[in-house]
């Protein structure tokens, strides 16, 4: 009953499927945001029960746009299975009553407030997968296990993208920028995912904003959970059914940019802390970059410690720990712009820089080499925000971007979280062919000192 080696199955799926197989007499509710694969787990479990445990299974699914579907799996004789589609709730109740009460009852896409779940027999489900809210009552303690299906990590999405569609890292990161950790959005076209995020963001107002600020937040009853998803430390199987161990986060950078005025800077710090605790390198990068952009948008300035980048390190012992001196600088950002989705739009914004504009960052992810542009006095700073001690530099792309500002001097500045990361930072190649002035900076915020530097493979190093 193990998964075949040729299939890619993330660790969390294996854990949850193992929990389902060992559920005994307990009812299991698979809970999580839409598009994470809960339905797949329920269907796999139903098939496993029929083919391996040789039990009769009744699978009831509510499919968007297709109504209710009932599939009966005869565990003792698979030739006697049947399916009915496009059913009403009364039809489902009648079909369920006509089958043996010894069936394992699996429900998918049905919420706790759904009238169907209030049917007496259907309340005795074996497994329920829901994207809605499920409030576990005291009387259900020891009877119902509420298990979280966590969001997808960037590394897992990269593996899926490579195996299924042959997507390279640039393509994956563009999709991740829009859809975050949602598998369904990841597999959509970028434009369809962007529209889906916009619809979800449109439901966020002052009354729901507090839900977005919580690290261990109350579960909402609205679409906010389409963009605010939950995760956990999967090293302990018990964490899947322990709500105290669940952490909530918005992983779509596009969504974060849209609601930046609602979410305070403290939210992005909490997100960095959470990512560090979970060793989620991708989430840490999202949180830190959005912290920098939100600082520009909300504070009207970005304060940095900065140094010139040394293209050649002379007479340095191998593995020597460097300790540079830095000067303070302030980037004024009273006038910010968050717009542009295509390369043509990016080029137009940079070529026709609006008078008075001090900070621009794109609403899309297809701009290569830089994350933002800031105007500091008479010069333009091409900013790359990263959490790593290394960054691959494309001199040709950088030269092209610099050519959009022919009448001004330009510098390429890397912004990292803390001094430890800034001291260790090197470009790749270490001495780029582009003659542009290069700078390394870190944010003036002691909060980030608690995090160790991150290596280029994406592993967050333990603090000293």
UniProtKB/TrEMBL annotation:
Swiss-Prot/TrEMBL keywords: Membrane, Transmembrane, Transmembrane helix
Transmembrane intervals: 28-48
Keyword Signal: no
Cited Gene3D superfamilies: P-loop containing nucleotide triphosphate hydrolases
Annotated InterPro entries: Crinkler_effector, P-loop_NTPase
Protein name: Crinkler (CRN) family protein
